[in-house]
Design goal:
- The structure is a single chain.
- Strands 1-2-3-4-5-6-7-8 form an 8-stranded parallel beta barrel, surrounded by 6 helices.
- The protein is α/β, with parallel strands linked by helices.
- The chain has 10 helices and 8 strands.
- 45% of the residues lie in helices and 16% in strands.
- It binds cytidine-5'-monophosphate.
- Cytidine-5'-monophosphate binds next to β8 and α9.
- Cytidine-5'-monophosphate (C5P) binds next to β8 and α9.
Length: 234
C-alpha cells in the first residue's frame, strides 16, 4: 500500500447539485485530495465536474455501481477510463468484473467491486434468492474480484477481516461506514472509527457526512487524516 496518507481519505460528495459540490471542494481546499462522486451527481453533470477536479490536481472515484450485460459494462467503463479517474465501482459479479476489466485495459482506472451492499442483511440476501449468508457472499465476491483483475473491493468495516483472510493484500480495501468517535451515525449501523478501520486493514476510507456536515469541514478532514497517519502500521 503506497498511497500517501492524505489520499487515503476519500470524501463522498453526496450533495444535491454541482454548485454545492463546488462549494464543498472550495471549503476543503488542500486538506482533501481525493473525492468520490456517486450517482446523485453523476446524472446531473458529475462526470464533467469530476474531470474539472482532476484538472485541478484532485483524484476522483466515480461510484457508479455498474451492472449490465458485458458489452454495455465494457463500453461504459471505457468512457469512464478516458476521464482519467482513479477508481470506478461495479457490482462484484464475475461477468461484470470481467467486462469492466476489459473496458479499463490500458488506462489508470482501477475497478472496485462492491461486495454486498451494506444495506443488505441476512434476511434480504435470503429473500433475494442467495443461498449463502452475507459473510460467505463477501468472501466469494472477494475471490472473484481478485480472479477478474479488480484493483480493490468496497466493503463495510466489519467485513475487512474476511476480505483480508480471503485475498490477503491482493485487493485494495475501500471502506465506507467510518465515523470518528462521537460523530452521528446517520443511517450507518455497522461502523468503525478511522483508526479501527485502518488497523483492521482498510487502504482507503470513504467519509461523507461527518465531513460535509461538519461546522468546519476542513478541520474534520484534517483530524481524520491525522488519525489515519497515527494508525498506519510502521
Ligand atoms: O455520509 P457517509 O460517511 O455515510 O457516506 C458514506 C458514503 O459511502 C456514501 O456515499 C455511501 O453511498 C457510500 N457507501 C456506503 N456503504 C456501502 C457502499 C457505499 O455507505 N456499502
Amino acid at each position: 500500500m503506497t498511497a500517501p496518507v492524505r489520499d487515503r481519505l476519500i470524501v463522498a460528495l453526496d450533495v444535491p447539485g454541482i454548485k454545492e459540490a463546488e462549494a464543498m471542494v472550495e471549503r476543503l481546499g488542500d486538506s482533501v485530495g481525493f473525492y468520490k462522486i456517486g450517482m446523485e451527481l453523476a446524472y446531473i453533470g458529475g462526470i464533467p465536474f469530476g474531470e474539472r477536479l482532476m484538472r485541478a490536481g484532485k483524484k476522483v472515484f466515480f461510484d457508479l455501481k455498474l451492472h449490465d450485460i458485458p458489452n454495455t459494462v465494457e463500453r461504459a467503463t471505457a468512457q469512464i477510463a478516458s476521464t482519467g479517474a482513479a477508481f470506478m465501482t461495479v457490482h462484484a459479479y464475475p461477468q461484470t468484473l470481467a467486462a469492466a476489466a476489459l473496458g479499463a485495459r490500458g488506462s489508470d482506472l482501477g475497478i472496485l467491486g462492491v461486495s454486498v451492499l451494506t444495506s443488505m442483511g441476512e434476511d434480504d440476501a435470503a429473500r433475494a434468492g442467495y443461498g449463502l449468508g452475507v459473510d460467505d457472499l463477501v468472501r466469494r465476491r472477494a475471490r472473484q474480484a481478485q480472479e477478474n483483475h479488480a484493483a480493490g473491493l468496497v466493503c463495510s468495516p466489519l467485513e475487512i477481516r474476511s476480505v483480508c483472510e480471503t485475498v490477503g493484500a491482493a485487493l485494495q480495501i475501500v471502506t465506507p461506514g467510518v465515523r470518528p468517535a462521537g460523530a452521528a451515525l446517520g443511517d450507518q449501523k455497522r461502523v468503525m472509527t478511522p483508526a479501527e478501520a485502518i488497523l483492521a486493514g482498510a487502504d482507503y476510507l470513504v467519509v461523507g457526512r461527518p465531513i460535509t456536515q461538519a461546522a468546519e469541514p476542513a478541520n474534520m478532514a484534517e483530524a481524520i487524516i491525522a488519525e489515519i497517519a497515527a494508525s498506519v502500521p510502521r
